[in-house]
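Shipment paperwork, digital attachment
Item: protein structure file
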Amino acid sequence: MVLYGRQACGLCQDMHWQLQELAGDLNIRVDWVDIDSDPALAAEFGTRIPVLMAENTEICHYTLDMAALNAYLDRRSSR
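Attachment content:
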């Protein structure tokens, strides 16, 4: 999974912290990408951050949506 955000974004930091806390229990790895490091990403996401993505699919944005994350994980495990 990839979490897109900005260093100076409180919502981004909150979601990143929440995901780090859950990573072991959910058996997930979340990579952080600062969109300001790439002009194309900054243009794509703008202020609609943080965005949690997996396999080119958006799971949630702004806040961590546990229902959406669990639904994604359920779909992934049933493959």
